[in-house]
Design a protein that fits this description.
heterotrimer; A mainly alpha; B alpha+beta; C mainly alpha; A: mainly alpha; MetI-like fold; 15 helices; globular; C: mainly alpha; 2 domains
Chain lengths: 304, 366, 311
């Protein structure tokens, strides 16, 4: 008797809510989309504004009209910059430096990561931790002593290192190599040890194991590390600002800021165009290889 | 000639002795299984034969040459791993031919060998697939193909079936045996599963704590185990060990289990146990298949007794019964129609013709 | 731990005795491995470790770098009010920015996690854009958005009759702006990290909690946060270090102004060292970052090794 009463009472207290879970979910979903749209506006607004401004004439920029809309779109800014040898020079410098640095980085990182993750030798564990730690020494600590070191080097050997863009080829890897090594160690470590042993029994030496087995299998990691190295090189600001001054030596970030801002006159149309074009390569790579990009980011922390 | 010889082989990891000086002779074309519980040193031994582990002391000879310092690729061996270790970015045929390609064999020869191995293993249609498109059993066959293709002196198998589900394991076991019949290469096979050992091996090496307990054919190990460990390891369900004493009775010997229960020792065995009457710590070893339900025509040596069954496990073709005897739980195998039920008594018969007497302190089978 | 014999050591078949351990160690894979790691070691030693130590020495010199003045530079800095302002500003920026980045990252990650998997990729892609754009470029965009005369934000505010805000002109607004840009650039990184961590929390834990009667807030507090504790800590510490040493944003947005009210260690060191020509003084300023960075680094290391042991 008691159970029958209880169940009737229960039914009255909690009317059957068929699909109550899904209604909950739908509600959460709607609110999620609302907030996501808000955040998307927040995150995408500056680049969009860059685009808008880049399509405006100087006249329209200084006018009182709505800054969020283009009334007389023009490609004049783009044409001017893309035909300016100075700007193209910046682009070229950035491209050359980035490509070289990426190559150097991978040539240093991959063998080092292989050695550290696979070939346990004396001190390999400390070295691995040490590399990770050096990543934490910021360039804002190093740029001044480096400046002095370069000046001294000039005194000893007569080779001028300051205001030479190719010096960046040596400096940038200090920023990219530690993290890329870290990423590759993570990917290499996830390859099962039996694969090495099978290769060993099949007759592969260490170098063959690296090139024929590890690199192909860890290819996603390689791509992620390459993208990371490229993005970091392209976006560098402090080192080029400190070490390059004359116009033909500048890379893109520094070039835009120092040359397009002449005195007190800011040609915003051109600045925004220049900045947008400067942001284009990383954005394009990101658009096509987004998964590798993200994998590179998360690999550092989650793969440990 | 591809015989393998181990002489006083020792392996120490830091302070731990994983392998304590074993001697073993494996003849050409023989299929030898190293079996034992986890940590007994069987995998370590296999890896030392492969060259994947250094030998702390002792010698290993393959085909008459000492190979202690020879790198794996020059030992003319092939290995099949527990996790298959297939190269994920290569197709099946590339996986199988990798070793040959490294040694720069001519392409025609490589193709011939790969095709032959694929025929033996029935994986011809898989040659262009990548490992991730294959099932576990197929991957294992590819791993075996990789080994066959190299035409080595010795095959080494490191627990190859452990990752497969039970049904597939039984299937693959037969495959491996058939392959060995075709390709008669010397094989050393490591497993912790004694069923695999018994079904596949020409000879079985039972290892425990880094030493060899016994080497023999499956039949020898089953019928004449030399130590308690081997007796309890081989055979499933495991042999029963019941504390007992030997006493003189009726002109012969009898095995006393409890105050109420004693089994007369068959004459054929009495001679062996004559000197054991003083020994206090003895165990009676009797396999469950030799403890059955009592039926009409009992042969000499089959002694009936009553048992109070605790648990019964109907297996279909037989029923396993568990009952207490002198403080230990004993397992018996009875006819499914014997009327065995949980908690009820049953008239059983123990076949003492297959008894073993074990010294409890030394673990030796008398 | 695999000790593998190097190829090429086949030795004569007649050799039977023990291996001579010393000789083999020399020819072991250790040498090959060390050579492979050597370029890395050289690069780091020469261009990271050495300059770091060198800066210690530099900080003890006078402006023209002729004389050794010991702690003179440090004493000088301690007396300057600007220095203490820089210390305070750097710390406040770093802590506030990281806090908001973590919060926003966490919240957004949850929303992205809630929507069906197909759409997640699209939204994730859009929301990561601030991280992908070179910070120098996007800071320029913000500079333009904050422009005293033409700020697009002020234009919108004017519609609601809210007075024009001196985004970079007023000290406190300038500080706010710097933090805002920093958060804008960095929050997506946190979102990605947290999203990955969210996905790794087993769904069954949430189901068990729901059965136990937990509402959404309690589920976050009792299930999500504890499971994500490690990632949260490591990402935050990482970001603390990077934010603390940040240069680009302040440099481009405010140049440290107005009246040095937004200077951080990095920009002030640049101002003193390169623009002011006093490298030792600049180096001393930079060095003050070290204690805080080191503390954060120790915590990170401890967390990583602890996580490594748990895993």
């Amino acid at each position: 008797m008691a159970t029958a009463d209880a169940s009737i009472g229960a039914r009255r207290k909690y009317p059957p809510k068929y699909g109550s879970i899904s209604r909950d979910r739908r509600w959460a979903l709607r609110w999620s989309y609302v907030f996501l749209v808000l955040f998307a506006i927040f995150f995408l607004m500056p680049p969009i504004y860059m685009l808008i401004t880049s399509l405006k004439t100087s006249a329209e920029i200084s006018a009182e009209s709505n800054p969020w809309w283009v009334y007389h779109p023009t490609l004049a800014n783009y044409i001017e910059l893309l035909s300016s040898s100075q700007y193209l020079g910046y682009f070229r410098n950035s491209a050359i430096v980035s490509v070289f640095v990426v190559t150097t980085t991978m040539l240093i990182s991959v063998p080092a990561a292989f050695a550290l993750s696979r070939m346990k030798f004396w001190g390999s564990a400390t070295l691995a931790t040490g590399i990770f730690l050096t990543y934490l020494i910021p360039e804002t600590l190093l740029f001044l002593p480096l400046f002095k070191m370069f000046a001294l080097f000039n005194q000893w050997t007569g080779i001028q290192l300051i205001n030479r863009w190719w010096v960046l080829l040596f400096l940038y890897p200090t920023l990219t190599v530690p993290f890329c090594t870290w990423i590759m160690i993570g990917y290499f470590a996830s390859i099962p040890k039996e694969l090495d042993e099978a290769a060993l029994i099949d007759g592969a030496g260490w170098l063959q194991t690296l090139t024929k087995i590890f690199i192909p299998v860890a290819l996603p990691g390689l791509i992620a590390a390459t993208i990371f190295a490229f993005t970091v090189s392209w976006a560098q600001f402090l080192y080029p600002l400190a070490f390059t001054t004359s116009s033909e030596q500048l890379v893109l970030p520094v070039g835009i800021i120092t040359s397009l801002i002449k005195g007190d006159v800011f040609n915003w149309g051109q600045i925004m165009t220049g900045a947008l074009l400067g942001a284009a390569p990383p954005l394009i790579i990101y658009a096509f290889l987004m998964d590798y990009y993200i994998a590179g980011l998360t690999a550092g922390a989650t793969k440990g | 000639m591809a015989e393998v010889r181990l002489r006083r082989v020792v392996k120490t990891f830091d302070a731990v002795e994983a392998v304590r000086g074993i001697d073993l002779d494996i003849a050409d074309h023989e299929f030898v299984v190293l079996v034992g519980p986890s940590g007994c040193g069987k995998s370590t031994t296999l890896r030392m034969i492969a060259g994947l582990e250094d030998i702390t002391d002792g010698d290993i000879m393959i085909g008459g040459d000492i190979v202690n310092d020879v790198p794996p690729k020059d030992r003319d061996i092939a290995m099949v791993f527990q996790n298959y270790a297939l190269y994920p970015h290569m197709t099946v045929s590339q996986n199988m031919s990798f070793g040959l390609r490294l040694k720069r064999y001519p392409r025609a020869e490589i193709k011939k060998r790969v095709d032959e191995a694929a025929r033996i293993l029935d994986i011809k249609e898989l040659l262009d697939r990548k490992p991730k498109q294959l099932s576990g059993g197929q991957r294992q066959r590819v791993a075996m193909g990789r080994a066959i293709v190299r035409n080595p002196k010795v095959f080494l198998f490191d627990e190859p079936l452990s990752n497969l589900d039970a049904k597939l394991r039984v299937q693959m076991r037969t495959e491996i045996k058939k392959v060995h019949q075709q390709v008669r290469t010397t094989t050393i096979y490591v497993t912790h599963d004694q069923v695999e050992a018994m079904t596949l091996a020409d000879r079985v090496v039972v290892m425990n704590h880094g030493t060899i307990e016994q080497v023999g054919t499956p039949q020898q190990l089953y019928h004449s185990p030399r130590t308690r460990f081997v007796a309890g390891f081989i055979g499933s369900p495991a042999m029963n060990f019941i504390p007992c004493r030997i006493e003189a009775a009726d002109g012969g010997l009898s095995v006393r289990l409890t105050d109420a229960l004693a089994f007369p020792v068959p004459d054929a065995r009495a001679e062996r146990y004559r000197d054991c009457t003083q020994n206090g710590a003895l165990l009676l070893g009797l396999r469950p298949e030799h403890i059955t339900d009592a039926h009409a025509n009992l042969a000499p040596g089959e002694i009936p007794f009553d048992a109070n069954l605790e648990v019964t496990e109907p297996m279909g073709m037989e029923t396993l019964v568990y009952f207490p005897l002198n403080g230990t739980q004993v397992c018996g195998r009875v006819n499914p129609n014997a009327g065995a039920r949980d908690g009820s008594p049953l008239r059983m018969a123990a076949n003492l013709n297959n008894m073993h007497l074990i010294d409890a302190t030394s673990g030796r089978v008398i | 731990m695999v000790d593998i014999v190097l190829p090429g050591q086949a030795g004569s078949a007649g050799e039977t005795r023990r291996r001579s351990s010393l000789k083999r160690t020399m020819q072991r894979k250790s040498t090959v491995a060390f050579l492979m790691a050597l370029p890395l070691v050289l690069l780091i030693s020469l261009l990271v470790l050495y300059p770091a130590l060198y800066s210690l020495y530099l900080a003890t010199l006078n402006k023209s770098m002729q004389r050794f003045i010991g702690f003179g530079n440090f004493a000088f800095l301690f007396k300057r009010e600007t220095f203490w302002m820089v210390v305070r500003q750097s710390c406040i920026f770093a802590l506030t920015a990281v806090l908001f980045k973590a919060l926003i990252g966490f919240v957004v990650a949850h929303f992205v996690h809630n929507i069906p998997a197909k759409g997640q990729r699209k939204w994730r892609g859009m929301l990561l854009v601030p991280w992908v754009i070179p910070p120098a470029m996007s800071t320029l965009a913000w500079l333009w958005l904050f422009d005293p005369s033409y700020s697009a934000f002020n234009w919108i505010l004017a519609i609601f009759r809210v007075g024009p805000i001196p985004w970079t002109g007023d000290a406190n607004w300038a500080r706010f702006s710097v933090i805002l840009v920093n958060v804008w650039i960095g929050a997506p990184f946190f979102m990605i990290m947290y999203l990955a961590a969210l996905k790794s929390v087993p769904e069954q834990l949430y189901e068990a909690a729901a059965i136990d009667g937990a509402n959404w807030w309690q589920r976050i507090w009792y299930v999500t946060l504890p499971m994500m504790r490690n990632i949260i800590a490591i990402t935050a510490l990482f970001s603390l270090i990077v934010t603390f040493a940040n240069f680009d944003i302040v440099r481009i947005l405010t140049q440290g102004g107005p009246i040095d009210k937004t200077h951080v260690f990095a920009t002030w060191a640049f101002w003193l060292g390169i623009q002011g020509g006093d490298i030792p003084l600049g180096a001393s300023v930079s060095l003050f970052m070290v204690p805080i960075l080191a503390t954060a680094a120790i915590f990170i290391l401890r967390d990583i090794t602890r996580r490594g042991n748990e895993a």
